[in-house]
Specification:
With 109 residues, the protein is of the alpha+beta class. It is built from 2 helices and 7 strands, in the order αββββαβββ. It has a 5-stranded mixed β-sheet with strand order 5-4-3-6-7. The chain has a two-stranded antiparallel ribbon with strand order 1-2. The longest helix is centred in the first third of the chain and has 8 residues. The two termini are 23 Å apart.
């Protein structure tokens, strides 16, 4: 349960500590992509940005971009990640114009 992430980040910190040489962790819950430790995720399918419909946190930037039709929500399974060319990190500080964008080929499993 992540809805109070600001109150207790213990589990997120434990996941982040497992990243070894990676820069970030993608959280998978019950086989579904959720978030990373600092942001909601969006994936580029070649036509539009897709955000997982199973986030741990309904972030304000995510909700804003959904409400404006700038991103679209759908189920993304761990095995679906390879169907996307890149992904971005969005949160209160990162929007579509300044978010980190990473190739899905760089994801370590």
């Amino acid at each position: 349960d992540y809805h109070l992430k600001y109150a207790d980040r213990t589990i997120l910190n434990e996941l982040f500590a497992q990243k070894e040489n990676a820069d970030e962790v993608i959280i998978i819950k019950n086989g579904l992509v959720t978030d990373c430790s600092i942001a909601n995720l969006i994936f580029w399918n070649g036509e539009k940005w897709i955000t997982p419909n199973s986030p741990l946190l309904l972030g304000t930037q995510r909700q804003y971009l959904l409400s404006k039709g700038l991103i679209h929500e759908q189920q993304i399974r761990e095995n679906d990640i390879s169907n996307y060319s890149m992904f971005g990190l969005i949160n209160a500080f990162f929007n579509l114009q300044n978010m980190p964008v990473i190739s899905t080929k760089s994801i370590l499993r």
